[in-house]
Amino acid sequence: MMKAAKFYKAKDFRMEEVSAPAVKPGHAVVNVEWIGICGSDIHEYVAGPLNAVPGTIMGHEFSGVVAEVGEGVTNVKVGDRVACINLDVCGECKYCQAGQRNLCAKMGIDGYGLLGFTADGAFAEQVLLESKNCIKIPDTLSLEHAAMVEPGAVTLHAVNKSRLTEGKTAAVFGAGPIGLLLVIMAKAKSASQIIVIDVAEDRLEMAKKLGATTVINPMKENAVERIKELTDGGVDVAYEAAGVQPTFSAATKCLAKNGELMIVALYEKEVSLFPLDLTMGEAIISNSFCYSEEFPEVIDIYASKIVDLDLLITKKIHLDDLVEEGFETNLNDKTHIKILVTPKQSNL
Predict the structure, then answer these.
(1) What is the chain's pLDDT, residue by residue, as a tens digit (348 residues)?
(2) Cα-atom radius of gyration of the chain, to the nearest Å?
(3) How far apart are CA 208 and CA 140, in angstroms?
(4) Is 22 helix (H, G, I), strand (E, B) or coil?
């Protein structure tokens, strides 16, 4: 038996004793070390069920140590330290075969989907997953930082999919955890300017520490005008990580000719668009969802010490305190960036 936090409905997470997972061929059982609380977890806590199946163990940003491997597993062994992919997909459709596992044709069908939403995830002592989703980490990368590889992969996927190349300019709208990780990935890709827009001064200060070249508070100055001043007419790629009408509109208006708006946020409401903002400059809108094969590159970026990742970790808590010290703290104290959770008292 093991301890796990099960989700049932909004404001209803229950700490329960459940059966520990049994290993299967092609799979591995991982002892969970650290789990990050994601914005999507908080959405489920506040208003769920949205994407999470009631009765599921949530938690999808996690690291751990391999405890057991099933028949046929060769890529990891017991004792390996791993960052874990939460894609639980068919592996056979045309998208999976093309390396686009995030677009699996069976996502949400026949039990396929995402660990922590459609299948049991990592707010627990152990988790079962396909061994190919266990990515070994170097000794130079801590397990705390490894728990942030998953959201790092989300942002690197967006950056890799966009038109950003060395020397081009980037703007990031929204300096939440995803926006701040976008700053790190744009820095890793050698963007010449990284401009961050947010209304929270503490988040803007953090963006500067992580590599932003300029920060803008739109409550104090016109963000679109300032971006155009800085970039000689418009930014090459604007990443929209806030998911609201004002940032979406500003992002469409600040682009260079042939510029790109890359949508990373998951919108909760429809937004309106004036196409002429894009047409005359032949600018485009692109979208990015989740990640596909980015874990190894994120691990390399993190291991390179391009930034101090500890800056992102604002609190560490025990699994028993997930609701009060995790979800409720995130909701009531907006200074927090990434709260990490562990089922092991010895980690604290």
Answers:
(1) 999 999 999 999 999 999 999 999 999 999 999 999 999 999 999 999 999 999 999 999 999 999 999 999 999 999 999 999 999 999 999 999 999 999 999 998 888 899 999 999 999 999 999 999 999 999 999 999 999 999 999 999 999 999 999 999 999 999 999 999 999 999 999 999 999 999 999 999 999 999 999 999 999 999 999 999 999 999 999 999 999 999 999 999 999 999 999 999 999 899 999 999 999 999 999 999 999 999 999 999 999 999 999 999 999 999 999 999 999 999 999 899 999 999 999 999
(2) 20
(3) 25
(4) coil
What the block records as the tokens of 239 is 């990443």
Are the C-beta atoms of residues 314 and 336 closer than 8 Å to each other?
A: yes
Per-residue CA distances from 341 to 5, 153, 269 (Å): 11, 19, 30
Tell me which CATH code domain 155-287 carries: 3.40.50.720
Contact (CB, 8 A) for 22 and 68: no
Report field, pTM of the whole predicted structure over 0.85? yes
Count CB-CB contacts under 10 A for residue 24.
15
Q: What angle (nearest 5°) sits at the alpha carbon of residue 338, between those of residues 246 and 216?
A: 35
- Could you tell me where in the chain the CATH 3.90.180.10 domains are found? 2-147+307-347
CATH code: domain 2-147+307-347 is: 3.90.180.10
Among all chains, which residue has been given the structure tokens 């101090």?
308
Q: Are 341 and 59 in contact (CB under 8 A)?
A: yes
Helix, strand or coil, per DSSP, at residue 225: helix
Q: How far is it, in rounded angstroms, from Cα 86 to Cα 255? A: 34
Nearest residue to 40 (alpha-carbon basis) of 121, 129, 111, 101: 121
Determine the Cα–Cα distance for residues 241 and 158; give it in Å rounded to an integer.
11
The encoded tokens of residue 143 equal 């397990």
Residue intervals of the chain classified under CATH 3.40.50.720 are: 155-287
Q: Which amino acid is at 283?
A: A
Alpha carbon distance, N-terminus to C-terminus of the chain: 23
Which is nearest to 179 in space by CA: 298, 337, 324, 321? 337
